[in-house]
C-alpha cells in the first residue's frame, strides 16, 4: 500500500471513529439510579411505565447495543431494523434485517414489528427511537392502496433520476404509514425521545430517515413538484400516481405537520452527524501536514456527475502545488 493511500485511509478512519454510533450513545446517555439522561434530557424513571426502544438504519445495531448498556433491565420491549449483513449481538432488543437502498419484504415485516411494539402505549410510557441513515428503505409500510412493489418501483426510479435525498424523501413520505411524523402519531400518547445519527447535510429532521418522528413541512403538492421535475409521473406505477394526484388535490390525508398534537410530548437529539465526521477528517488531515479544504457544498445527486465535480475541484486545488486534502460530505 502506498504511503498516500495509508494516509487517506487513516483520515477516513478518523472520520468514522468520530461518529461511532455505540460510542455516541454511551457518551450522551446514562442511567443513574432512578434517573435516565438521554442527550441532556433528564427523565425521572419513577414516573415512567414501560420503556420501548424502536429504530431503523444502517447504524441501528450498534446504537441498540449502546442503549442496552444504558437501560439494562429497565428495557421492556425493543425492536430495531438494520440492513442485511449488518447484524450484531444484542441481549434484549430484537434485531431484524431488511433491504437497502430498495425496500424488500423484510422491510415490510420490520415496519410492522416496529408499529406493533408501540401500539397501545399510554401517557406514562417512554419510547426511545434510534434513527440513522437508511431508515427510509428499512421501514416500509405502504400507504393504503399501495403495495411493496409500488414502493420498490418508486424508489428505483428516484435513485436513477438524480433526485437528491431531500427530494427522494419528500415523495417517499407520502407513500408511507410510518414516515413523515407518522411513527410519532403511532406512539401517542407516550413520550417519544429520538436519538439520531445523521448522514444528512444540514441535519434536517424532516429528512433524516424520512422524519418518522418529526413534523413534515412538505405536502403532496411538493411531492408532485418532484415528480414533474424528474418526469416521473408517466413511469410511476398507476397506484402511486393516483395517490400523488389525489393528495395534491386535497383528497388524500397528508402527513402530520408541526401543529399536530402527536408531537407535543416528543424531543429529538442529534448524537452524531456528517459535520462531525468532516471536522474529524479535516483535523486528521492537518495533523498529517495537509492543507485541509472542506468543500462548502454537499456532494449529492447522481454519483458519476458528483464524482466529476469533485475531481475537477481537486484539479483546481492541486494547481497551487500545496499538499491539499479535499474533504466533502453528502450522499449520492
Q: If you compute it from the alpha carbons, what radius of gyration comes out, rounded to the nearest whole angstrom? A: 21 Å
Give the % helix: 40-55%
> Sheet with the most strands?
6 strands, parallel
How far is the N terminus from the C terminus? Answer: 27 Å
Name given to the CATH architecture of the largest domain: 3-Layer(aba) Sandwich
**Pairing-aware structural class of the strands and helices?**
alpha/beta
What oligomeric assembly is this protein in?
single chain
Round the mean pLDDT to the nearest integer and report it: 94
Q: Work out the strand percent.
A: 15-25%
Shape: globular
Task: Explain this structure.
The two termini are 27 Å apart. The protein contains twelve helices and 13 strands. Helix 1 runs antiparallel to helix 11 and helix 2 packs parallel to helix 3. 40% of the residues lie in helices and 20% in strands. The strands form four sheets. Strands 6-5-4-7-8-9 form a six-stranded parallel beta sheet, sandwiched between helices. It has a three-stranded antiparallel beta sheet with strand order 1-2-3. The model has no long low-confidence stretch (mean pLDDT 94). The chain has two domains: 204 residues, 3-Layer(aba) Sandwich (Rossmann fold), CATH 3.40.50.10180; 41 residues. The protein is of the alpha/beta class. Strand 4, helix 3 and strand 5 form a beta-alpha-beta unit.
Amino acid at each position: 500500500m502506498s504511503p498516500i493511500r495509508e494516509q487517506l485511509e487513516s483520515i477516513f478512519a478518523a472520520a468514522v471513529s468520530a461518529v461511532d454510533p455505540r460510542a455516541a450513545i454511551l457518551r450522551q446517555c446514562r442511567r443513574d439510579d432512578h434517573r435516565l439522561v438521554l442527550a441532556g434530557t433528564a427523565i425521572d424513571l419513577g414516573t415512567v411505565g414501560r420503556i420501548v426502544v424502536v429504530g431503523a438504519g444502517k447504524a441501528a445495531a450498534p446504537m441498540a447495543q449502546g442503549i442496552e448498556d444504558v437501560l439494562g433491565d429497565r428495557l421492556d420491549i425493543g425492536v430495531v431494523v438494520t440492513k442485511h449483513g449488518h447484524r450484531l449481538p444484542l441481549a434484549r432488543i430484537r434485531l431484524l434485517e431488511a433491504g437497502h437502498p430498495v425496500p424488500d419484504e423484510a422491510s415490510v415485516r420490520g415496519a410492522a414489528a416496529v408499529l406493533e411494539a408501540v401500539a397501545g402505549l399510554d401517557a406514562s410510557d417512554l419510547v426511545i427511537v434510534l434513527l440513522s441513515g437508511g431508515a427510509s428503505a428499512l421501514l416500509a409500510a405502504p400507504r393504503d392502496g399501495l403495495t411493496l412493489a409500488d414502493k420498490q418501483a418508486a424508489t428505483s426510479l428516484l435513485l436513477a433520476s438524480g433526485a437528491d435525498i431531500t427530494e427522494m424523501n419528500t415523495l417517499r413520505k407520502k407513500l408511507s404509514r410510518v414516515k413523515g411524523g407518522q411513527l410519532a402519531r403511532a406512539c401517542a400518547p407516550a413520550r417519544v425521545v429520538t436519538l439520531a445519527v445523521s448522514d444528512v447535510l444540514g441535519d434536517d429532521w424532516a429528512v433524516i430517515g424520512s422524519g418518522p418522528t418529526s413534523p413534515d413541512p412538505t405536502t403532496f403538492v411538493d411531492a408532485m413538484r418532484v415528480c414533474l421535475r424528474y418526469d416521473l409521473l408517466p413511469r410511476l406505477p398507476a397506484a402511486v400516481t393516483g395517490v400523488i394526484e389525489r393528495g395534491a388535490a386535497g383528497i388524500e390525508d397528508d402527513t402530520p405537520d408541526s401543529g399536530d398534537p402527536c408531537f407535543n410530548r416528543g424531543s429529538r437529539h442529534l448524537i452524531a452527524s456528517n459535520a462531525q465526521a468532516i471536522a474529524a477528517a479535516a483535523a486528521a488531515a492537518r495533523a498529517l501536514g495537509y492543507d485541509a479544504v472542506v468543500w462548502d457544498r454537499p456532494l449529492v445527486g447522481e454519483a458519476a456527475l458528483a464524482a466529476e465535480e469533485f475531481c475537477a475541484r481537486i484539479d483546481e486545488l492541486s494547481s497551487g502545488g500545496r499538499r491539499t486534502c479535499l474533504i466533502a460530505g453528502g450522499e449520492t
